[in-house]
Every structure is written in C-alpha cells, then in structure tokens.
Amino acid sequence: MRLKLAYSPCPNDTFAFHAMVHNLVDCEGLEFDITLADVEQLNKGAQNREYDICKMSYHAFFLMTDKYVMLRSGSALGYHNGPLLVTRKGSKLSSANGEEISKALISSRIAIPGEMTTGALLLKIAFPEAKSTYPILFSKIADSIINGEFDAGVLIHEGRFTFKEKGLHLIMDLGENWHTVSSLPVPLGGIAVSRKIDSETASKIGRVLKRSIQFAMDNPEFSGEYVACHAQEMESSVQKKHIDLFVNNHTLEIGEEGERAVKELYLRLKEGENQINYRDELFIL
C-alpha cells in the first residue's frame, strides 16, 4: 500500500522518519510518497486532506480532529523546548518588565510562524492582548525582527539556538510559561493519520513509525547525512542540539503525561474557540 506522508525538513523529523523512508526497518508492506514542507504548509495541506500521514502542530490538529487522529509515536513534546518570544536588543520591548510588556505588546507587530502553529497558541495563552500577529515563514522571523519589519516574533525550531548571536533579546520563553500555568510538558506537534485510513492500517503505521524512531535512537549516525541535507541550520552542533531537545521518550510513546498535556492544551483552546468540537479520543488506540 502506498501512502502520502508529509513531514518537515527539521532535524527531529528527518531523524525520526529516516529509517522507515529508507527501508531500514520492517514497514509491513507500506510504501510512502514523501512531501517535506514548512510546518504551517503541512498544517494547511492537512486541512485540505492532502496527506494520509502528516506532521502537524497540535494547535492545527485541534482544529481538525474530525479529519485526523494522532499517532502515539512521533510527537515533539517535552520540557524546556517551547517557542520563544523575542525582540531586538535595545528596543523598547527589550527594556520593558512585567505589566509593561503586556501593555507594549498591545501595539506591537508580532511575527508568528503560522496561525495554526502551537507557537501562535502559546503566545495567545501568555499574552491574550497581543492581537497584531502576522504569519510568515518561521526561518524568516529572526531577520524580519532585526530589520525592523516587526517589533517581536515567535521563534520555533532551530531559532531558539541562534537568536542571541543574531542580536535578539528574549521577552519570554513561551514553553516555560506553559510549564508554569499547567505543570505539564509542551505539546508542540505530532504525527497524525487521516480518518479515511482504516484502523488496521493506521495501527500498522503507528508500529512502523515507532520502529523507525527506535532505530534512529539506537543508531543516530545512520541519519546524519539525511538530516544535514534538509536542515535550515547547517552546523552539525545545532542539528544535534535540535534532535536532543525535541526527540525524547515522549516521541517514542506519548505516555499518560503527554496525553494529559495535549488534552489540557486542547481544553484551553476550546474555551476560547466556540467552533471546536471536543472529541474524547484524540489518539489512536
């Protein structure tokens, strides 16, 4: 069976999928047509039901639980790995404190990596008054702040490792804020399967993906070339930091704590979005 599989070129995804797309593990007869794209492009593609299997932001997933179900393996979820809200060093925002920040953000132009990204949702949770948000490609956010196009921006992926050397100032670690308000890990994104796929095949996909992730963890050197040729930040040290931060035990199996985190974020979104239809079962059994 051939399936349309889509994921991002970020190191954690290419690391996790490398073994299954290169037939280094038992794929149980499954074959894949691969699409690599920015996370917001993936979110929009999934919204249009373009993929059978798709990496997507949890924020996006919550808006389409009627179309997709989440696999128990493959999530980017954990502690101390959330998006960062940053501004230019020396800007008015960089010298603001406490309530001053909230007031300043009311009139600030803020770049976000996509309206359906979890970063955008975590910004709303931390600063609901920040209304002037503008979605742009995640890899362009840092430079767009530096050149003055935006007052602040939400960095994801490799951006958290390079923002200081680019002359940016941290306003808030949005992941740490989520830990404070929820006492749970940050559910950034996961691997979802179309509800058009029968349950037996969906379970098979889950097994193959878990096998692929375990292989990557056991043999990290195997995926090095594949990761490097797709990474935004080409320095191997940054790629390794990215993988170490975003691939963990929750990636292999979401676990009870991970499920609680996902459902807590889901409920917080549902509180502010009347169009969300709550589903008790977000994950494949």
Could you describe the 3D structure shown?
- The chain is an alpha/beta fold and 285 residues long.
- The protein folds into 2 domains: 2-78 and 186-272, D-Maltodextrin-Binding Protein, domain 2; 84-182, D-Maltodextrin-Binding Protein, domain 2 (3-Layer(aba) Sandwich).
- Helices cover 42% and strands 19% of the residues.
- The protein is built from 13 helices and 11 strands.
- It has helices spanning 11-21, 39-47, 58-62, 99-106, 118-126, 141-146, 159-162, 174-182, 199-218, 224-230, 236-246, 249-252, 255-272; strands spanning 2-7, 31-36, 53-57, 68-70, 76-78, 84-88, 110-112, 133-135, 152-155, 168-173, 186-194.
- Strands 1, 2, 3, 4, 5 and 11 form a 6-stranded mixed beta sheet that branches.
- Helix 5 (118-126) packs across helix 8.
- The chain is globular, with a radius of gyration of 18 Å.
- The mean pLDDT is 91.
Properties at a glance:
single chain, 285 residues, alpha/beta, D-Maltodextrin-Binding Protein, domain 2, 5-stranded mixed β-sheet, 11 strands, 42% helix
> Helix-strand pattern, N to C?
EHEHEHEEEHEHEHEHEHEHHHHH
Q: What is the overall shape?
A: globular
By CATH, the topology of the largest domain is: D-Maltodextrin-Binding Protein, domain 2
- Kindly report the average pLDDT value: 91
Beta strand count = 11
CATH class of the largest domain: Alpha Beta
| SS-derived structural category | alpha/beta
The N- and C-terminal alpha carbons lie at a distance of 21 Å
- Looking at the overall shape, the CATH architecture of the largest domain is 3-Layer(aba) Sandwich
Number of helices: 13
- Can you give the helix content as a percent range? 40-55%
Largest sheet: 6 strands, mixed
Give the low-confidence spans: none
